[in-house]
Specification:
This protein is α/β, with parallel strands linked by helices and 434 residues long. It is 25% helix and 20% strand. The longest helix is centred in the middle third of the chain and has 24 residues. InterPro entries: ANF_lig-bd_rcpt (IPR001828), Glu/Gly-bd (IPR019594), Ionotropic_Glu_rcpt (IPR015683), Peripla_BP_I (IPR028082).
Length: 434
Amino acid sequence: SKMRLQLQLAPSLEHQVAAMLSILVRYNWKQFSVVTSEIAGHDDFIQAVRDKVAEMREHFSFKIQVEVKVTSREEMAIVKHSETRILLLYSTRAEGENIMRWAKEFDLTGNSYVWITTQSVIGEGREALPEFPAGMLGVNFDTSLEHLVKQIPTAMKVFAHGVEAYLSDPQNKVTDLVPELSCNMTTSASNELESRWSFGERFHRYLRNVTIKNSEFAKPHIDFLPDGTLKSVELKIMNLRPGVWSNLVWEEIGVWQSYKKESNGLDIKDIVWPGHSHVPPQGVPEKFDLTVGFLEEPPFINLSPPDPITGRCNVDRGVPCRIPNGSSGNATSGASIMKNDTTSQCCSGLCIDLLAKFADDLQFEYDLIRVEDPKWGILINGKWNGLMSSLVEKKFDMVLTSLKVNGERESVIDFSAPFLESGTTILVAKRTGI
């Protein structure tokens, strides 16, 4: 087996990823990008992010916009073009300094951008590098020599309990824990040495099943996951903010605990956000608003009343839309129709599904209003009526409906590419011998 026969008492890369994503869940940031350097394990970090996103799919739908390994300034252009606002960074401290300098040159460190880093970027000290902007977040744990020395007794306890369990098992009476290994990869019957310890995997299972009491008060027991990493981990959540002398320092603002389910294990205090703001960014580019007209035509656009109890459009009823009270032929624009002059309805159908998809992909908000003159629109005495009139007179930014394309209409408005072909076909019976 090529599995890693190790036990890890320090938080794993997977733990750091879980803590980082818990921050995204807290602030409802669904879109993000992953930025790494050539640091050892950068592929493992990306895979850990993918695995955790897939694991959380039923509860929270993430979208990874780009995954990029940045080794030069030019590669930051990929991040810039993605229009991402939330970025997870995995690199060394020195590489992180270069990446953040290039990010600043591409205007990727402004008030609407949040960078969340791993422990490797923060390092041991509280002082931040000059290129790091205020408002950065990070996950951290103690990697000092003093802390590592404190872990030696714990490691010895795990080993001792594993040995005791191994030797207490009657199945292991004929074996011992003294491997006779050779650097020579070939073995023979006359050579009792082996290149790989045949009982290593078995002994590892005993070590992995060890559970011991934590020396720290009120902390969960020390036990391990199948991959040899700790089951219960606590990480510090750090925030880069002005210190006493106005220089930026990493300050602990909370903790993430893998063994707690409330708030995804996250417990944090107030955060200084990018631009020294106390309000979190939206996590997406600034949206623009569109006034969208429509004319119902099942099954492309269906109308139904809202829920009689809540007055809202539930998932099965579609999205909110408005119907002008009465119908008039004046030139009132869609944007100027007051809500008091309309009746709330729910719209659903293929066109509405497409609109919702476009709004999500292109990041815009929309106000859906039925055209006041409910006709498709024809040209009468040089003037359009109905839906065509609303478009020609620019009452709406766009119109959704099932509208036939013809030369007259195409000469005054722009149609989208047809997404569904529908028309009249004449079928004639085919007779042989005629």
